[in-house]
Amino acid sequence: MYLKEIEASGFKSFADKLKITLDDNITCIVGPNGSGKSNVVDAVRWVLGEQSVKSLRGDGGMTDVIFSGSKSRNALNVASVTLTFDNSDNYLNIPYSEVSIKRRVYRTLENEYFLNGEKCRLKDITNLFLDSGIGKESFNIISQGEVQKILSNSPYDRRVIFEEAAGVLKYKKRKEEAIRKLDRTHDNLDRAGDIIAELETQVEPLKEQSAKALEYLENKHNLEKIEVALIVYEIDLINETYQNNKQRIEELNNKIILIKNQTSDTKVDTSKIELLKLETELSKLNQDLLTITKEAERLNGEKNIQQERSKYDSNDSKVHDNIASLAEQKLKIENEYSLLEQELNIEQDYETKSIELVKNLTSELQLVINKKDNLSKEELEKERNINLLEHKIQVITNYLDNGGNLPNSVKAILNNPKLIGIYDVIGNLITVSEEYTKALEVSLGGSKQFLVVENEYTAKDAINYLKNNNLGRATFFPLSVIKPKGIDIETETLLKEEAGYINICANLVTYDNKFRNIILNQLGNVIVVNNIDSANRISKKINGRYKIVTLEGEIIHVGGSITGGCITSQRSMITDKLELGTLIRSKEELTRVIKELNDQLSSLDSEYNLVFNKLVRAKEQLFLTQETVKSKGINLTAAKESLNNTIVELNSLGHVIDSSLSKEEEAIINKYYEQTKLKESTLLKIKKLSKEKDDIKVIIEELEAKERLNNTELRRMEAELKELEIAVSRMDVKLDMYLNTLNEDYELTYEKAKGNYEMELELDEARNKVITIKGNIKRIGMVNLAAIQEYEKVRTRYEFLTLQRNDLLHAKETLLSIIEEMDAVMKEEFMTTFELIQKEFGGVFEQLFHGGHASLKLTEPSNILETGVEIIASPPGKKLTTISLLSGGEKTLTAISLLFAILNVRTVPFCLFDEVEAALDEANVDNFGKYLDHYKSKTQFLLITHKKKTMEYANTLYGITMQESGVSKLVSVRFDQENK
Ligand code: ATP
Fold first, then answer.
1. Residue 38 C-alpha to ligand 1 middle, in angstroms?
2. In the 8-state DSSP scheme, what is residue 572?
């Protein structure tokens, strides 16, 4: 590799473009003082990245390097320098045979670097030339007056030359980088440590608070799930009884009103008034009877006296007696006859009434019998129905107990107690309300007979059992393996807007939460809609991505294929379980109705007995009355006959009677018998009224007995009513309380709660769980819900920082080992190179000085990485003394010896020396030139010189002048290779 071309424009005195083309030999640049030769060295250093303005001989900013103008030329605003290298030997690690680097600076301080025309960073350029022997501070670029600096520098500053010769700068740079990174790592470690310590104080208390809050939330969630479902269940339970009680209350109220209306208060009262009237009438009649009897007795006395007197006055007292007796007998018979007629009338009246009563009671009894018959028939029918239901219940229960229509393999597994971890078939682990049965059936399809098991090992055991016993095949859902499926949120949001969408199938069924993953796996991504039209529309909307089923059992499969038609009525355990529930409820209802019928029948029995007894009594009474009517009729006929005989007899004696009985006597006899007749009829009246009185008393007694009966029934019903009303009002309070809990604790209406929460536990278990969970919540006490998020935040940060700290510690270890590695390499390389240079140095020195001694010494041999390098030089004939005492020329020659010694050890592509030999005498310049000549096959030399002797060794000579005041020019080029 060699430097092919230097091109500068606007740089320092190079106002015009300057292009120096070089070859790989020795090139000299000559020219008068101040013509701008050293600016070429500056240009090379600058383009290699020199940042120090001072070392570029400026004293302001980097814009000092831009042409600042002259008398005839204005200042420029931009300076640029380009170096072009021949890299055909690939010396530089870049795949180009020619490499150009360029630097440009503007007055605005913009600074740019280019590599082969592409913009790049300074770092890219520095890295490219690292340890290549080309660098702004390399020992092979020596500016004017700086050669002696090699000697005057401190041993430590000098060390750099050896480092560069040893090619350890790249290691040094890597080490520096590693140290910088290590420093940053330490800083980061400190910062991370501080934050971790701070977080550690927060993370534990927050963890506790968060755990407590999470426990609280979990309990709350469980409580909500169980309590809401339980409340809904309790409300339904109470409501059923509540409705029944209400109905019963209405029934009882109606019955009570009916009985109260039936209660013959007024009838009893009317009868009692009538009784009173009869008694008054009777007592008056008894009074009358007394008066009438007294009058009759008086009349009898008067009649006797009159008869005695008439007998006394009569001629024939015997005849008189007979006649008088006949007359009296006639009157007596007439009286008796009229009495008998009255009695007969009364009895006939009784008879008519009795017949009427018997008739009424008979039809009343018939009515009761009819009612009883109807109720008995109804009861019989209901009992028959209940027997049928019981039979059906028994059949379904047996069927379900024996595994229903499950395949034999599945039944065998379920019935094998040795297989642990087998739950049931999926169809048996789900309950669903009737309306969604078809949708569920088709959603599950054949998988409803798949067995849910604990894990894959359980399934394996069961499969082995089937294989060993040749029992067929079965499919398993291991809880530990099956993952839930669902519908993405976007689709679900879209579905909620769609008419006809009902829900996701998994949301319409109830199951034990333990089986959630399996249920969601089967039903979590199945959409239930009302009918096939909605299904088609929705399927299109969601691009057929999910299975859709309708309430009628049609299916639109993923992708759009449709299954439909009628579902053959194949039994399934899901429908069987539903039917069983319905049958049990119907049986309970029938049992209630039969009990009611029984109650009605037993009250009809009492009514029947009552009416029947009355009828028997009425019939007896009728019989007796009819007998009396009969005997009275006979008596009346006999009386009539006797009366007629007496009348005939009297008529024959008529004229005798007229003449035999005085008017007074006749009058008194008539009066007496009139009175007797009155007495008898009064007696008859008394008898009739007494009977009526007795009848009324019986009626009153009956009415009062019925009333007593009614009152007992009424009291029983009123007591039942009261009890029911208390129960209903208690239920009202309970219902209110439940609805309030739903509203206040869960912000739910009953309908919403019923739609979204299903009882998954047995009633008692649910009640106990609610009590336990409430106890838990009370025990947990006050919680800070924000702690959950806060803890997550702090924990994530804590874990992140801990991880980062570990990474940093790891990085630190890596960096330390890199540093160690670099140190080892640098030590070795440095020492090897140092020893080689040292060896060469003595020889070169002796050659250049024609004698004398020189050597190199490490100031700190025990610390190779930092040691300085001492130069010990003793020109011929002079004692070893400090180099500061050497002459200027000696110093230069010693420094040049060192440079050549280095060049012996390390080949560098090119050297740029600015008047390094200025202080040498002619002979030494010649020696210097010879050395250059010796190296020129390996190294390209670019020399700025005033020495003619040096120029003689040059293959190419350039002159730089400053013809136009202030602007450098490359004025002549001489190729003189042959003449050299
Ligand atoms: P010598 O032989 O005396 O060492 P030289 O040929 O090496 O001289 P340089 O030191 O390279 O000369 O050039 C110095 C010249 O460059 C000066 O005349 C100085 O005015 C000029 N110069 C330096 N910087 C600028 C600048 N930014 N703009 C214009 N001219 C500049």
1. 7
2. -
Pocket test for ligand 1, best of 18, 30, 38, 964 (most atoms within 8 A of CB): 38
User: Tens digits of per-residue pLDDT, 139-186?
Assistant: 788 888 788 778 878 888 888 888 888 888 888 888 888 999 999 999
The strand pairing partners of 29, in sequence order, are 944, 958
Distance in Å, CA 10 to ligand 1 centroid: 13
Cβ(67) to ligand 1 under 6 A?
yes
Give per-residue pLDDT as tens, 405-452: 788 888 889 888 888 889 988 988 888 887 888 899 889 888 888 999
Q: What is the largest CA-CA distance in the chain?
A: 240
Locate 158 and state its tokens. 């000098």
Q: What is the gyration radius of the CA atoms in the chain, in angstroms?
A: 71
Cα–Cα distance between 827 and 825 in angstroms, integer? 5
* Residues 72-119 pLDDT 10s: 889 999 999 999 999 998 888 889 999 999 999 999 989 999 999 999
- H helices present in 747-762, as ranges: 750-756
User: What is the whole-number distance in angstroms between the Cα of residue 34 and the centre of ligand 1?
Assistant: 5
Q: Which two tokens stand for residue 65?
A: 């390097």
Looking at the CA of residue 36, tell me the nearest atom of ligand 1. 11
CB of 965 within 6 A of ligand 1: the answer is: no
The best mutation among 6, 9, 11, 13 to test binding of ligand 1, ranked by most ligand atoms within 8 Å of the C-beta, falls on: 13
CB of 35 closer than 6 angstroms to any ligand 1 atom: yes
Q: What distance in Å separates the CA atoms of residue 509 and residue 758, rounded to the nearest whole number?
A: 8
The alpha carbon of 967 and the centre of ligand 1 are apart by a number of angstroms equal to 9
* 8 Å CB contact between 842 and 875: no
Cα–Cα separations (whole angstroms), residue 48 to 52, 128, 133: 12, 10, 12
What count of other Cβ atoms lies within 10 Å of the Cβ of residue 789?
12
Q: What is the spatial distance between Cα 375 and Cα 388, in angstroms, rounded to a whole number? A: 20
- Grouping H, G, I as helix, E, B as strand and the rest as coil, residue 546 is coil
Of 39, 71, 945, 964, the one to substitute when testing ligand 1's pocket (max ligand atoms within 8 A of C-beta) is 39
d(CA 440, CA 430): 10
Q: In what order do the strands lie in the sheet with 78-86?
A: 18-21, 2-9, 78-86, 98-106, 111-115, 118-120
Bin 869: left if φ > 0, else alpha if -120 < ψ < 50, else beta. Answer: beta
Report whether 786 contacts 537 (CB < 8 A). no
Residue 13 Cβ contacting ligand 1 at under 6 Å: yes
Q: At 503, which amino acid appears?
A: N
Ligand 1: centre distance to CA 33 (Å): 8
3-class SS shares of the chain: helix, strand, coil, % to 5 = 65, 10, 25
Residue reference for tokens 């013509």: 35
Q: Relative to the CA of 41, which ligand 1 atom is closest?
A: 11
Sign (positive/negative) of CA torsion 461, 466, 467, 468? positive
pTM, 2 dp: 0.48
Strand partners, 161: none
At 183, the amino acid letter reads D
Any ligand 1 atom below 6 A from CB of 888: no
Strand spans (E) along 299-449:
422-425, 431-432
